[in-house]
TrEMBL record:
Family in the record: Belongs to the 'GDSL' lipolytic enzyme family.
Keyword Hydrolase in record: yes
Any single Pfam family the record assigns to this protein: Lipase_GDSL
Lineage: Eukaryota, Viridiplantae, Streptophyta, Embryophyta, Tracheophyta
Keywords from the UniProt entry: Glycoprotein, Hydrolase, Signal
Domain of life: Eukaryota
Cleavable signal peptide: 1-19
Protein name listed in UniProt: GDSL esterase/lipase At1g54790-like
GO molecular function: hydrolase activity, acting on ester bonds
Length: 376
């Protein structure tokens, strides 16, 4: 694999409005495969084989990626270690600086018998409540476990991060019309609000909410729903999926504003991932990428290199032939890793844009700038 030069980017970053800043003692994350650092794998529900992890960890790390996720770059920016998955049990995982409840395939709405992941948002919140209660119980017994567990005051001082909703929308298109998908969005967001309220009641005060990306640009959705050219937009993305994502994001943004009004002692930051990812896909060549939608790791060749029957790293018999979904030569040339998830190079770009503060509401405040080095 072609190696990229090690670049140290130094940005001037600014704290948030309402005195949010990047000095959080711990992070608690909730979401799906966009930020899962090993939950579904630890649960034994799925397995990941090489070439997953090849660009950074040199081995599958529980992440649906060739390397680091957006959350890994954000943790690095805050000078915090990568988050262990809640269900990590082997190898002495440390939860001192936080815990990751995100699980691949998770939805905001409660899981059904057909769901990939049983760990819907409500379950992740319940896992956090259990985690916090157990931490406080263990800390009360003595200081021996303090280096592995968050201190009691960390729960209120922590940043609570959310990146979930993609699977609610993308999954719905398999059985619903666009109008039915749009009609379901308020119900989905009531469930999200319920989870946020439960976390607030547990002491959470700093909320960082990612909106959902342009689902119609994922090879998985183009392969399934984009066979008719009239269903695609000028970028070659499925129009209906992106329309649903935009409307979901508008309503999520409105909910974030409502929550800020309800919980005036808290900080809510809404992050426009959709615009960042859309800009990346529209301007991929200017940004150093060669393929905006084709999967690096997949089967079937151009234009999408995606086959729903076989996922990255797996070997199967298809049409009487044994085939393996292999990786491309240089994943840093690809925006998409496996047809569903972004490559490490794309995640690095998205993270660098998040950290400018331009895509956040409220945008990062212009008071007290400080230097922050990102190890990209």
């Amino acid at each position: 694999m072609a190696s990229k030069p090690y670049i140290l980017l130094v940005f001037i970053f600014l704290p948030f409005a309402n005195s949010i800043h990047f000095k959080f003692p711990s992070i608690f994350n909730f979401g799906d495969s966009n930020s899962d650092t090993g939950e579904l794998i630890s649960a034994g529900i799925e397995s990941l084989e090489p070439p997953h992890g090849q660009s950074y960890f040199q081995t599958p790390s529980g992440r649906y990626c060739d390397g680091r996720l957006i959350i890994d770059f954000l943790m690095d920016a805050m000078d915090l270690p990568f988050l262990n998955a809640y269900l990590d049990s082997i190898g002495l995982p440390s939860f001192h600086k936080g815990c990751n409840f995100a699980a691949a395939g998770s939805t905001i709405q409660p899981a059904t018998a057909q769901s990939v992941s049983p760990f819907s948002f409500g379950v992740q919140v319940a896992q956090f409540v259990r985690f916090k209660a157990r931490v406080l119980e263990l800390l009360a017994k003595g200081k021996r476990l303090g280096k592995y567990l968050p201190a009691q005051d960390y729960f209120q001082k922590a940043l609570y991060m959310f990146d979930i909703g993609q699977n609610d929308l993308a999954g719905a298109f398999y059985s619903k019309t666009l109008d039915q998908v749009l009609a379901s969005i308020p119900t989905i967001l009531i469930e999200f609000e319920t989870g946020i309220k439960a976390l607030y009641d547990q002491g959470a005060r700093n909320f960082w909410i990612h909106n959902t990306g342009p689902l119609g640009c994922l090879a998985q959705n183009v392969a399934k729903f984009g066979t008719d050219a009239s269903s695609l937009d000028e970028q070659g993305c499925v129009r209906k999926h992106n329309q649903a994502a935009k409307i979901f994001n508008l309503q999520l943004h409105a909910l974030t504003k409502k929550l800020q009004g309800l919980y005036t002692d808290s900080n809510f930051t809404y992050v426009d991932i959709y615009t960042i990812k859309s800009n990346l896909i529209a301007n991929y060549s200017k940004l150093g990428f060669e393929q905006p939608k084709m999967a690096c790791c997949g089967f079937g060749g151009p234009p999408l290199n995606y086959d729903s029957r076989i996922s990255c790293g797996k070997t199967k018999v298809i049409n009487g032939e044994t085939v393996t979904a292999k990786a491309c030569n240089d994943s840093s040339e690809y925006v998409n890793w496996d047809g569903i998830h972004y490559s490490e190079a794309a995640n690095q770009y998205v993270s660098s844009q998040i950290l400018t503060g331009k895509y956040s509401d409220p945008p990062f405040s212009d008071k007290m700038p400080f230097l922050l080095s990102l190890k990209f």
